[in-house]
From TrEMBL:
Residues 23-291 form the Aromatic amino acid beta-eliminating lyase/threonine aldolase domain. Its cofactor is pyridoxal 5'-phosphate. Transmembrane segments: none annotated. GO terms for cellular component: cytosol. This is L-threonine aldolase. The lineage of its organism: Bacteria, Bacillati, Actinomycetota, Actinomycetes, Streptosporangiales. It comes from Nonomuraea fuscirosea. GO terms for molecular function: L-allo-threonine aldolase activity. The keyword Transport does not apply.
Amino acid sequence: MPESSPPVRRSLFLHAPIRRGPRRMLEQMLALVDDDTPADGPQGPVAVLERRLAELLGKESALFFPSGTMAQQTALRVHADRLGRRTFAAHPQSHLDVWEEQGYNAVHRLRLRRTGDPHELMTAADLAAAAGEPLAAAVWELPQRDLGGLLPTWDELGEQVALVRATGAAAHLDGARLWEAQTYYRRPFDEIAALFDTVYVSLYKSLQGVRGAVLASDSATVEAARVWRQRLGGGIRDAWPLALAALVHLDTLAERMPAYREHAIAIAAAINADGAARAHPDPPQTPMFHVHLPAGRHAVERAGQEILAEHGIQLWGRVRSASEPGRSAFEVSVGENAMEFTPDEVVGLIHDVLARAR
Ligand SMILES: Cc1ncc(COP(=O)(O)O)c(C=O)c1O
């Protein structure tokens, strides 16, 4: 959003500035420390966070990274070096391919085998075809953000992972939004993580920290990842503010998530009953879904700016273009911000957007 954007008073967008202002975050972080809390070492916030996440995910060890981008490329590099294979499979809409300037290749000389249809989830058949060439790893993004938070069923996921692992390849979880995925699978986090050799979770998405990531795995893999973290400049000392910010919501997030999912389902149902726009998937599987609009991206962006200026309401982080002209979409990811909007109010706002976008 441009610097000159009007102030946001209410927002449907998970990462709206209203809930992430520095003062509010610092107050929450302060509540977790006292005069004796060390910045570093085994009792410092980074080590505490790593232990807490290793335990939650049922892994031997976990390692802080400054970004998920670095954590995931590192995980794939470690798997590739261990197996002596350079190719990994991932969905065409994977963050690794779309948003990382092909770092897996530029930095690590890895090759991506794009697997599955860009607008559908990967299937076992897609993975079987990809595994025709020996894979170092396959990546599952749960939920698949750019498909509106879609997820394979638990049985499908198990079948896919087993198929890939039978070829000797590693299974890696892009769990940037694992808390969202868990609301659909309704299984303990460690049961979900047990399917995978390496698991990355984000510290700043639903956990609402500042930045950062954690990679969890067996101890040997984590130690190999630690070397790469250092090589890539990610072994930063004094990462404690990032770890502390992530610890703020760690205890309470999982219990709040089902209510977010229910609210997402209610909002999506109201949108689809109204019919002016279309919510997908229907019903949402997680607290996130897409709203598809019969109006082009630029007109919708302008309408959103007007609504923000007039009412202080932010409706999205970004508007996505569509292959069909005159259409666009935006993501709703329900957290505390979106809980403040009734389903009818969201429908009314969509009508307002469409009226302005004409
Ligand atoms: C699904 C997914 N994976 C990985 C990442 C990378 O995380 P980071 O921004 O910490 O590099 C993101 C960030 O948006 C993401 O959405």
